[in-house]
Amino acid sequence: MIRVCVAGVTGWTGSAVAEAVEAAADLELVSGVSRSDPATFSTVEEALDAVATDVLVDYTHATAVKGNVLGAIERGVGVVVGSSGLSADDYAEIDALAGEKGVGVIAAGNFSVTAALLLRFATEAARHLPTWEVIDYASAGKPDAPSGTARELAERLDDVRQPELRVPIDETHGAREVRGATVGGTQVHSLRLPSFTVSTEVVFAADGERLSLRQDAGESAVPYVAGTLLAIRALSGRVGLTRGLDRLLEAGGRV
Question: Terminal CA-to-CA distance of the chain, rounded, Å?
């Protein structure tokens, strides 16, 4: 039995994950963390110190996730990270501490199968097409940018190669900011508008042709649940950081 604590247990995704953990025969929901519910723990540290836990699942907030993850690792607890807001430097710090403590961490900007497939197909396209940019769509109230999905996509493309830029960003005439932010070597443009949950699009181009790949999240947390449960079960025996649900699918996992 894998003992699970869900941080953000009353949230949109966290509540759905907690319900699924409770329903699974091989998982046990031992605690939850929420600042808004007095029936739960108010901090991750309190929850992990009070109840023996194997895995922390974090679906909280960009301002809280790093502290939660590091606190869990220090206590020898594996972590599944579904929250956005972590930078490449943050992930490097998490990976180093997890390796030192002999703990596994699995993080994904998006735990849905379609988002994992977007990463897989985009990295293949980057091997054959020389230029691309990413468009990151999210709700008007999302405070962090880019989304975790868009950041993970840009950094994964950087592992393949950097896109060609016919006009370098620092040679742009006018407002350079309109060319977006450079994440890895990729330009990312974040839109924050009503009616979006999270959508991530990458546009590839060569002379005379274009290819667009886009993943759209609906208004339900259901797509993220199966991937999160897969990550919980995949933590056993892992040490250090694994980024991306697609890495688990490549290893033979099923959602």
Answer: 19
Half-sphere exposure of 49 (CA within 13 A, CB side): 9
- The alpha-helical segments, DSSP class H, found in 24-166 are 44-50, 65-74, 88-101, 113-126, 148-160
Q: What radius of gyration, in Å, describes the C-alpha atoms of the chain?
A: 19
Are the C-beta atoms of residues 7 and 44 closer than 8 Å to each other?
yes
The pLDDT tens digits of the residues spanning 46-63 come to 999 999 999 999 999 999
Q: Are 125 and 153 in contact (CB under 8 A)?
A: no
User: Which residue, among 94, 110, 87, has the nearest Cα to 226 in the 3D structure?
Assistant: 110
Q: Dump pLDDT digits (tens) for 86-135.
A: 998 999 999 999 999 999 999 998 999 999 999 999 999 999 999 999 99
Structure tokens, 22:
């409770």
- pTM metric for this prediction: 0.84
For 89, how many CA atoms within 13 A lie in the half-sphere containing its CB?
0
